[in-house]
Amino acid sequence: MRRLFTWILLLSISLPFASFAADEYLLGAGDSVRITVYNNTDLTTEARLSEDGSIPFPLIGRVILGGLSKAAAEQRLSKQLTEGGFLRQAEINLSVTEYRSQQVSVLGEVNKPGKYPISSAASVMDLLAQAGGVNEKGSSMIRLVRRDPSGTSTQSDIDLNKLVGAGAGADVSVQNGDVIYVAAQPVFYIYGEVQKPGAYPLQREMTVRQAIATGGGLTVRGTERGLRVSRRDAKGATQVYKVKLTDSLAAGDVVQVKESLF
Predict the structure, then answer these.
(1) 3-class SS at 26?
(2) Which of 148, 159, 245, 251 could be a cystine partner for 209, CB 3.0 to 4.6 Å?
(3) Inter-CA distances, 27 with 69, 73, 174, Å
(4) pTM over the 0.70 mark
(5) Radius of gyration of the chain (CA)
């Protein structure tokens, strides 16, 4: 599992943002910008967009840039400078120095949960990398929650094992307001005649034999005969089943290893 999360971080850092499909970033309140005008260094401006999406700019006063792409904002500034008679030709360059208006929340079993700003194109693995990666308790299955303009939430589950194995083309783009939730890895319990009874992470398609090995193996009094697993059914009631070493375990299973009578 640790190797998987290391690969997530490496892939996130090495893949260029351009490889992910996403709409061009739109400026919003809280974003900081730096604006230069060719051959007019006195008009160089650094500002943060206010709540109404505007900034103060020399000669033309406040101008609303919120909701505009970088190119559209440059065109608006150029137009106001030329149509206002301040410059005959205005070549504008705008760069975003701090992204703050669009954010994604990364919650659950990550090393640094919180809200993270996103730029023009960002993906699930980009955000996991910013959050320090999935911690040792985290599951390889994560959930992406998205709310559409009508307020309806949709959820999709993403298997990080498949995501990493498939490469950049399989990564999932994120957008403003998304929530990435990493649940705790499911566990199983093993008790009785094993060296190290207790709770352990449940690996994919884990068998009873592997569970016993995870628990340190049998004690000198332990036996592989008469193995039992306690499991909750769909109604929440606990059922006890006889199992073989090759049977698979489910999340929350309790494996009981008996003492040998001989």
Answers:
(1) coil
(2) 245
(3) 6, 9, 16
(4) no
(5) 28
Per the structure block, which two tokens stand in for 206? 């884990």
Angle value at C-alpha 187, between 155 and 236, nearest 5 degrees: 75
Show Cβ contacts of residue 228 under 8 Å, excluding neighbours closer than 6 positions: 240, 241, 242, 243, 255, 256, 258
Domains and CATH numbers, the chain: 2-20+102-184 (3.10.560.10), 32-97 (3.30.1950.10), 187-257 (3.10.560.10)
Query: How far from 225 is each of 238, 258, 261, CA to CA, in Å?
Result: 22, 8, 10
Residue 86 exposure: Cα atoms within 13 Å on the Cβ side: 17
**Which DSSP state fits 236?**
S
